[in-house]
Write a structure and sequence with these properties.
Chain lengths: 112, 113
């Protein structure tokens, strides 16, 4: 069965510093992986997706993620955090029946 | 840009009452989903729907739950007799066949008193 583990429940960074949100996946086949973001009182917005093409995936708002099969990881990064990046981030894997399996989420705090 | 919409944004109901949560998926999408997020917990899959029938449902989706596409645009989730533990944010999503990106609505916050 597919699953994802988000290694940090909270991450706090200063504005202008890099962001790293960690995710490990478990899958019996080449997975489709996603990062979604949820701003307070908002819905879920797709940041980026990996579907077995390029291993470095670029998303919206300057975010990117690298698929590393050897490490079963799909970490989300951004070179420079902005105050508007403060939100909850979900690493997600799609299973064979096309339903999404969510990680527990990482709350990103951005300090001024 | 097309988007998934959901109504109402917040629903408060008494335990044992029926509620219907409404969703309007993106117009050319044919796969529809409901997920829920209990406060402080993971987003969980409830049900997927295609070609006017349920494709898959989770163990959460018991006989109290039903889904329907009553016309060409709406997709509804009905909870027949609500329980306190049904209090959650319910998200509708839709996708295009053979495209694995699911687009989510803003959610309906259901509060059962």
């Amino acid at each position: 069965a597919q699953s994802v583990t988000q290694l940090d429940s909270h991450v706090s960074v200063s504005e202008g510093t890099p962001v790293l949100l960690r995710c490990n996946y478990s899958s019996s086949y080449s997975p489709s992986l996603f990062w979604y973001v949820q701003h307070p009182n908002k819905g879920l917005q797709l940041l980026l997706k990996y579907t077995s093409a390029a291993t470095l995936v670029k998303g919206i708002n300057g975010f990117e993620a690298e698929f590393k099969k050897s490490e079963t990881s799909f970490h989300l990064t951004k070179p420079s955090a902005h105050m508007s990046d403060a939100a909850e981030y979900f690493c997600v894997v799609m299973d064979s029946s096309y339903k999404l399996i969510f990680g527990s989420g990482t709350r990103l705090l951005v300090r001024p | 840009e097309p988007e998934v919409t959901q109504t109402p944004s917040h629903q408060v109901t008494q335990m044992g009452q029926e509620v219907i949560l409404r969703c309007v998926p993106i117009s050319n999408h044919l796969y529809f989903y409901w997920y829920r997020q209990i406060l402080g917990q993971k987003v969980e899959f409830l049900v997927s729907f295609y070609n006017n029938e349920i494709s898959e449902k989770s163990e959460i989706f018991d006989d109290q739950f039903s889904v329907e596409r009553p016309d060409g645009s709406n997709f509804t989730l009905k909870i027949r007799s609500t329980k306190l533990e049904d209090s959650a944010m319910y998200f509708c999503a839709s996708s295009v066949p053979f495209n694995n990106e699911q687009f989510f609505g803003p959610g309906t916050r259901l509060t059962v008193l």
